[in-house]
Write a structure and sequence with these properties.
The structure is a homodimer.
Chain A lengths: L1 E5 H12 L13 E7 L2 E7 L3 E8 L1 E4 L2 E5 H10 L4 E7 L3 E6 L2 E6 L18 E4 H9 L12 H4 E7 L2 E7 L3 E8 L8 E6 H11 L5 E6 L3 E5 L3 E6 L18 E6 H12 L7 E7 L2 E8 L3 E7 L1 E5 L2 E6 H9 L5 E6 L6 E5 L5 E5 L5
Antiparallel strand pairs in A: 1-5, 1-7, 2-3, 2-6, 3-4, 4-17, 7-8, 8-9, 10-15, 11-12, 11-14, 12-13, 13-26, 15-16, 16-17, 18-22, 18-24, 19-20, 19-23, 20-21, 24-25, 25-26
Helix pairs in contact in A: 1-2, 3-5, 6-7
Protein name (chains A, B): Beta sliding clamp
GO biological process, one term (chains A, B): DNA strand elongation involved in DNA replication
Family (chains A, B): Belongs to the beta sliding clamp family.
């Protein structure tokens, strides 16, 4: 292999593929990225055996070939390089020679034959979605999944395809975030899958630097996201996702519309006085919401938040982190807090948007 | 005590005093800051028994008094507060009531009588220096002192006052940074002291938000820096600082003038190929500097850096971290690297400035 490439192109490609690679894997090739010429471009690939990423960057191909090199080392080397261009050439002993102006470097690599095959997925896209829409949908849900869960289903993110929608959901049993994302055209069927949280979070990071359209492909046990110049392939989680829709209440007794930032400030103030329990009390009366917390050691806080209230007086105790997770990940100026009583699920929805619901259980003392 | 204060003033004052306070000290009062009315202003104080900080902020004093409250809690509370003003009032049981618009809060504190006395230092300034000059001098030296040193003298920073200069020096035996700082007027005598590195680093952080003049006071075992609205008091380190001047070579065999950024890039590239040893080879020939490093595992790198060279060819092995520490903390476009041979101290000086010298020992393999 011999290719010439701009530093910027190479840097961008390395940035995309390097995220899933570790640096301390005892199987050295899993710390490496694969560089390979591919139809006039340079293909970079990485995998951690659960997730694989391929990306393509432009360059001048002088000789076809392939080689793997340590991801961390080539990343740091290219990032530090002050030159505009670099020539990459594989030499004997699986070494990569990098030449650019005054910089002469050899990086020890491993043969491309040692690199795990990243599986191919079906060649027909199952669904197409706008990159921004998918990014927003992930941003509003992924943090709600269960960390370190013994029940693997809810450690992942649910995606249910039906006509021109995906229902994207995440829960840890105590709270649930659901976002309906709109597809660019009807999906090729109905399908329910569970994606590892890590996969969605890697896809989210790629979406941050993508635009245009994303194609989603499936095989029996795998998903492929195809972005601009990048593919992300991941296994799916086996099992069936809990039927969470049944716990979303149909009706509430109290609805209060409140400025999101104001509510956040009040919760953060209360949070300082709930250092051990995380419990804050949220009380709704006709003139607004009152947030309170107190602790023997720290003291106490009461904050009044203006709100437009419809329905009954109400109050319940919440884990402030569960409320803040949702409020911090929305962008609307106002949200609606919906309650039934101190033992039934409450809901947060953004004002003026009906594609997002957040459900949170009160704390029973 | 009852005072009204703007959030911005209080936030700034808390920021300054909170640095030296811990939050996990078993002696609770050492996690607290002291709030005290003082001649029409609010005085905030903190101490870790080695360093004490006092700062004053404006406010409306309605009732004189004093109280201590947990630094972390009041800091986080005030930082989160969206209001412009806040009223602070001490109530029975050493509690601080904070009132501002919709926010009603009580923070449990401790009596001001439990707060350690921050000692008074002499009332005559020993020296006066421009804040910017002192900040720059600290920035170019403090990182060179010995961390976790069994010999306490060199864990600190040396300050030698003589006429209108301070010699500020730090060393860990393998390298030495010396900066001559200019006083605004001759000092009230000659004096040599050693300051704890933590003290200098706290002073540096206060200097970052200070301007104008800094006064330096001494008592037998203590130093006081007086900034705009802030005082920092610290113990001094006992003992006498090594006579480091004798190791600074008077003459060198080779002097090469090189662009600082270019040299940094070359060292960082080499550093990637010296992962275990930190050793890079620096070779000087008439046409420039060549930096090389290699490792069995990673590969090898050679970078040529353009330089104006006077004197003999030369080469030596250095710990790249010791070179980068110095180069990263200078701001000049070019520096001069001076060498004798591969076993004698080398020097780095910034071009066009004679108040700074960095000495570094080569590695003998």
């Amino acid at each position: 292999m011999k290719v010439e490439c701009t530093k910027e192109n190479l840097k961008k490609g390395l940035f995309v593929v390097s995220r899933v690679v570790g640096s301390g894997n005892p199987l050295q090739v899993l710390n490496n990225i694969l560089l390979k010429t591919d139809q006039g471009r340079i293909k970079l690939s990485s995998t951690n055996l659960e997730i694989g990423v391929n990306t393509w960057v432009g360059g001048k191909i002088e000789e076809d070939g392939a080689l793997t090199v340590p991801a961390k080392l080539i990343n740091e080397y290219i990032n530090n390089l002050p030159t505009e261009k670099v020539t990459l050439e594989s030499t004997e002993n699986s070494t990569l020679k990098l030449e650019s102006e005054n910089y002469h470097t050899s990086i020890k690599g491993l043969s491309h034959e040692d690199f795990p095959l990243i599986p191919q997925v079906s060649d027909e896209p199952f669904a197409k979605i706008d990159a921004q829409e998918l990014k927003n949908a992930f941003a509003e849900t992924i943090w709600a999944s269960a960390a370190n869960e013994t029940q693997p289903e809810i450690s992942g993110i649910f995606m249910g395809f039906d006509q021109d929608q995906i229902r994207i959901a995440a829960t840890d049993r105590y709270r649930l975030a659901e976002r309906i994302a709109h597809l660019l055209e009807p999906a090729r069927g109905t399908k329910e899958v569970i994606l590892p949280a890590r996969t969605v979070s890697e896809a989210y990071k790629i979406l941050n630097i993508s635009s245009g359209e994303v194609e989603i492909y499936f095989s029996e046990s795998q998903v492929l996201f195809k972005f601009d110049e990048t593919e992300l392939i991941s296994r799916l989680i086996d099992g069936s996702y809990p039927d969470y829709r049944q716990i979303i209440p149909k009706e509430f007794k109290t609805e209060s519309t409140v400025e999101r930032e104001e509510f956040i400030h009040a919760l953060k103030a209360a949070a300082l006085f709930a250092p051990d329990s995380n419990n804050v009390n949220v009380e709704i009366k006709p003139d607004g919401i009152t947030v309170t917390a107190s602790s023997m050691a720290a003291g106490e806080n009461t904050t009044k938040v203006n709100a437009k209230v419809k329905g009954d007086d109400n109050s319940a105790i919440f884990n402030f982190r569960y409320l803040l997770d949702c409020l911090n990940n929305l962008s609307e100026k106002t949200i609606v807090l919906k309650m039934i009583n101190d033992a039934s699920p409450a809901a947060i929805v953004p004002t003026g948007r009906d594609n997002y619901t957040y459900i949170v259980m009160p704390i029973k003392l």
